[in-house]
Design a protein that fits this description.
- There is one protein chain.
- By secondary structure, the protein is an all-alpha fold.
- Helices cover 71% and strands 0% of the residues.
- Helix 14 runs antiparallel to helix 15 (281-291) and helix 24 (441-456) runs antiparallel to helix 25 (459-471).
- The chain starts with a helix and ends with a helix.
């Protein structure tokens, strides 16, 4: 990746300095390079962009595309040492793009997308204020581009994403949206992406890869429609053959949709793709799939991830899960030794890492059947998880956290087994006991109740459940649970 960026940037600046007139030409070479970058095929992208610059030294699109390489490298590998360099390169690219013709729809669009890349990078490294500032710049540039070029279809891709994100801002951050002048709507945002994809069924658009990814993720998370998202990424248009990015996306959604076997198969196949080893996060994902099957071989993959990964995210989480496997194998001494490492390694920017840190500060081991049932459920082995949970003697539960988790796990299992009535009974018991506690089980139980009522068409009850979820404060996974509840209200109240 470093070699790619250095070569491309050097060629760009040299050639553009000699060019008489800058222009935007998203031609066949640029489309090919875009597809290669979005497949994480960096060597192929380098060759394609070199060829394009040789033919068209005054084309500004390669500058825009070079930013993808930097952005994706930071998002996937989290190497903070490269952050400042890439931020400077982004500013230089923006300056060059501003020298292009303003009568091209790509003039504002390229600037907007580079600003969005910057927002994602700042968010990746926990700088929420700078992320919000860059997001606002991108949002306003896109709004202006839509006014100037209403028929420029690529506007729909970025604006659809940003409108959806703005529509899911949790209540406690509404003031920030108002301050920045950003107002969104999830339904409208997803509709824009769908329109773009429908318009390019026969011939892929210039932003096809991102449109597909954004559509799948927004359907899955913000519209709480994993069935549609899963069907979409399993369609012929989302073939992951020889494509690291699509393999990652498909495996990641499979894990979140509790399809561990599918994720395992996808990632094992992806190991054969050239460039796979450049992304240690793929080993973390494979370890997650194996952990959900209680496969002790996951430990080796977590350890490889911890050795190779340059970032700070998911480090604490990987350590905790390595400790879980030692605990499940009755090696409590090793489990405790691993937990001690959590305090000095990684960061707490993600909910999973926060949970790991909280456990390290107050290590109370869960009942082994509770932990095993959770992991089996996460992998989609519902009947095996239910059998494991049913073996627990209630008298063994003892502490409130154990009782909360016991009720929540039963609720989730009955929900997935299509027994909504029993699920709600267990969720209500969890909420009643845990609404004022730091454990996330009560808030998540209220969220799940909202999902059930929404599917049943009981709008008022769903809204009440989502509001009840948002009323619970200072619990683990606060931001992600709040965002899902806010998205639910956005869907029902619009």
């Amino acid at each position: 990746m470093k070699h790619l960026c250095c070569v491309i940037i050097a060629l760009l600046y040299h050639n553009l300095a000699l060019a008489g007139e800058y222009r935007f030409d998203f031609n066949a070479n640029c489309r090919k390079a875009y597809s290669q970058l979005m497949a994480l095929n960096n060597e192929g992208a380098q060759e394609t962009l070199k060829a394009e610059l040789g033919k068209n030294p005054n084309n500004l699109i390669p500058i825009y595309l070079a930013d993808y390489a930097d952005c994706l490298a930071l998002l996937f590998n989290g190497d903070e040492q490269k952050l400042r360099i890439i931020q400077q390169q982004q500013e230089e690219r923006l300056s060059l793009i501003e020298q292009g013709h303003e009568d091209s729809p790509w003039y504002l669009f390229c600037r907007a997308n580079i600003q969005l890349h910057g927002a994602l990078i700042h968010l990746r490294f926990g700088d929420h204020f700078r992320a919000a500032t860059k997001f606002r710049k991108s949002f306003l540039l896109l709004k202006e581009n839509r006014i100037q070029f209403p028929n420029f279809q690529e506007n729909k891709v970025l604006f659809g994403l940003e409108q959806s994100i703005a529509g899911a801002i949790p209540d406690q951050y509404k003031w920030l949206g108002a301050l920045l002048g950003i107002k969104g709507n999830i339904k409208n945002g997803v509709a824009e992406l769908a329109q773009y994809l429908n318009a390019h069924k026969d011939a892929p658009g210039a932003m096809q890869e991102e449109a597909m990814i954004f559509y799948a993720y927004l359907k899955f998370y913000l519209q709480s429609n994993p069935e549609t998202a899963w069907r979409y990424i399993n369609g012929s248009q989302f073939d992951e053959e020889n494509n690291i990015m699509r393999s990652f996306i498909k495996a990641n959604l499979a894990l979140n949709y509790r399809k561990a076997e599918s994720a395992f198969s996808i990632l094992k196949k992806a190991e054969q793709i050239k460039g796979y080893a450049q992304y240690p996060i793929l080993k973390y994902e494979l370890a997650e799939a194996m952990l959900a099957k209680l496969d002790p071989k996951c430990v080796g993959l977590y350890q490889q991830f911890l050795t190779e990964y340059k970032g700070q995210y998911f480090v604490k989480d990987a350590l905790l899960k390595t400790a879980w496997m030692a605990y499940i194998q009755n090696n409590i001494k090793e489990a405790n030794a691993i937990v001690e490492q959590i305090n000095s390694k990684g960061d707490v920017a993600t909910d999973a890492d926060q949970q790991a840190q909280a456990f390290a500060e107050k290590p109370i081991w869960p009942l082994k059947p509770l932990l095993e049932s959770k992991l089996l459920f996460d992998g989609g082995a519902y009947q095996r998880a239910l059998t494991t949970l049913q073996q627990i003697d209630k008298k063994q539960l003892g502490s409130i956290p154990h009782i909360l988790e016991y009720n929540f796990r039963f609720g989730r299992l009955f929900e997935e087994l299509k027994n909504d009535e029993k699920a709600i009974l267990f969720y209500n018991a969890c909420i009643q006991m845990g609404r004022s506690r730091k454990e996330y089980f009560a808030a998540r139980a209220a969220l799940q109740k909202g999902f059930i009522y929404e599917k049943q068409g009981q709008k008022k009850r769903a809204i009440d459940a989502f509001k009840e979820c948002l009323s619970m404060r200072s619990h683990h996974f606060q931001s992600s649970i709040d965002q899902l509840a806010k998205a639910g209200l956005n869907r029902l109240e619009e």
